[in-house]
Design brief:
single chain; 81 residues; three-stranded mixed sheet
Length: 81
């Protein structure tokens, strides 16, 4: 962990919210000297791999996702007719 950057932009050296920065394989948390960071929760979201119903490419999403995805796609299609 490191303290907030000392520059004329941060004259009071108070950072309202800590900032997390991914740097290589490390996560750095920038905070001011008044903040104590006890824990960090990291949530990583990514796009799923492409799949097709026309080939044997399996979808990595769980089956619980299919109904909301299909219903959402149908709603979008019907609204734009």
């Amino acid at each position: 962990m490191m303290y907030a950057i000392e520059s004329y932009y941060n004259d009071g050296r108070i950072l309202r919210n800590p900032v997390a920065i991914l740097e290589g394989d490390k996560l750095k948390v920038v905070h001011d000297k008044y903040t104590t960071v006890d824990a960090v929760d990291l949530i990583y979201l990514r796009l799923p791999s492409k799949f097709s119903i026309l080939t044997d490419t399996a979808c990595e999403l769980p089956y619980e996702c299919f109904e909301p995805l299909v219903n959402g796609a149908l709603d979008l299609y019907i609204r734009h007719l």
